[in-house]
Design a protein that fits this description.
The protein is α/β, with parallel strands linked by helices and 401 residues long. The protein has helices spanning 14-26, 37-47, 63-72, 90-98, 111-149, 155-200, 206-238, 250-260, 262-265, 286-304, 336-339, 359-369, 396-400, and strands at 6-10, 30-34, 51-54, 81-85, 103-106, 246-248, 269-275, 282-284, 309-317, 322-329, 373-378, 384-391. It has three domains: 6-109, Rossmann fold (3-Layer(aba) Sandwich); 112-238, no CATH class; 246-400, Heat Shock Protein 90 (2-Layer Sandwich). The longest helix is centred in the middle third of the chain and has 46 residues, at 155-200.
């Protein structure tokens, strides 16, 4: 059962407290009250409300300063603030929004409109909190499982563990995403009428809401997509479903991977291809090989960054029974201690939120599942080279031999 949303009212006007308190209580909210700015700051830090209704003109400390301090404090920076003030001039509204508020309502106010705005901000805050909570749980679970797996004797243990994590995370993520998509549909219905109200000039702040709410929805969808990507990576790492293998043209897989990564490579990475047109076919899954090649290309682009760089892709026969694929970039390279860990599950040098640490582990598993091998060579300042070998597709003539 979900807890009541907490709304903190910081206002020196007892009438405002009484009116809003009654309506918020009817709406199922828990109401907290403060009559001074400093008192409100202390209550916000201690109680972590879901929304703060803040007056602009108060003794000792004005509302704009209170808002700035709320946004500067880590514990309260994510709490939405709505100004409720008799000062209705545009400069005041702009100053309030610049201080970090999500809305500015002028007195005298319409209770129905105020409650609609309050309910919207409370729902958005709670959805955001759920996303952050599940993301933190996921990161904690992954770290905990990784520590356990350092001493594991078999890689299969990690596969089983990863499948369990994916199952635990998938259900709440699906629930959150469903709510976000439903909110997006509701917003499509009401955004046009709200935009018309804004255009009429009767409700100047509705225009701001019409602009900001879609951005908030997209931010929440981005968060759920990251969780979904991690879960997908965990499932792939567990390799629960065997790939269907057939005759595969490696050069076509490289070309397809380049199409998929064109948007990432085109600005700073020059690609040089040296693909053997007579390269023998291999026995494997084209979809999985494209996945491996895409991962290596994206990693090269990330390493090169915004300084122009080069990625060389070469295919050639390794022997009668094997083909060789090389990916070489001229990025910054990596020290030995990093090189030794790059195929380890959950190991990543990317910032938090930009990498799951599963891409190269999954690639390593795919290539070995194909009966091949993947190795890496690198030194600081000398780029990175990945070398892949894959077995050639057996022909009838080979079988007879």
């Amino acid at each position: 059962m979900s807890k009541k949303p907490i709304v903190l009212i910081i206002d020196d006007d007892p009438i405002v407290h009484k009116i809003l308190g009654v309506w918020l209580d009817k709406a199922g909210c828990e109401v907290m009250e403060a009559r001074r700015g400093r008192e409100g700051l202390d209550m916000a830090v201690r109680n972590q409300p879901d929304l703060i209704m803040l007056d602009v003109m108060m003794p000792e400390m004005g509302g704009f300063e209170v808002c700035r301090r709320l946004k500067a404090e880590a514990k309260t920076s994510s709490i939405p603030v709505i100004f409720l003030s008799a000062r209705s001039d545009n400069p005041d509204k702009i100053q309030g929004l610049e201080a970090g508020a999500v809305d500015y309502i002028s007195k005298p106010f319409d209770l129905g409109e105020v409650m609609a705005r309050i309910n919207l901000q409370v729902k958005l805050k709670q959805q955001g909190d759920q996303l952050r909570e599940y993301t933190m749980r996921l990161e904690a679970m992954v770290e905990d499982r990784t520590r356990q797996l350092i001493h594991a004797e078999r890689l299969v243990s990690l596969g089983t563990l990863s499948a369990g994590i994916a199952h635990e995370i998938n259900n709440p993520t699906t629930f959150i995403l469903g709510n976000i998509l439903m909110m997006e549909r509701f917003w499509e219905v009401i955004s046009e009428p709200l935009a018309s109200m804004s255009a009429s000039g009767s409700h100047p702040k509705i225009g701001y809401i019409v602009k900001e709410v879609p951005l908030m929805i997209q931010a929440m969808k981005k968060g759920t997509r990251r969780i979904t990507n991690i879960v997908s990576g965990l499932k792939a790492f567990a390799r629960q479903e065997p790939a269907v293998k057939s005759e595969v043209d490696v050069n076509e897989c490289v070309t397809e991977a380049l199409k998929l990564t064109r948007h990432r490579l085109k600005y700073h990475v020059r690609v040089v291809k040296n693909l053997d047109p007579l390269l023998p076919k291999v026995h494997g899954s084209a979809q999985q090989l494209v996945q491996v090649f895409v991962n290596l290309m994206i990693n090269a682009a990330d390493a090169i960054g915004e300084s122009d760089g080069l990625l060389k892709i070469t295919t050639r026969p390794e022997s009668k029974n094997m083909v060789r694929i090389e990916f070489t970039d001229n990025g910054p390279g990596m020290p030995p201690e990093i090189k030794a860990k790059i195929f380890d599950p959950f190991f990543t040098t990317k910032p938090v939120g930009q990498g799951t640490g599963l891409g190269l582990s999954i690639s390593h598993g795919i290539i070995h599942d194909h009966g091949g091998a993947i190795t890496v060579e690198s030194e600081p300042g000398k780029g990175v080279s990945f070398f892949l070998t894959l077995p050639v597709e057996k022909t009838d003539e080979d079988t007879n031999d």
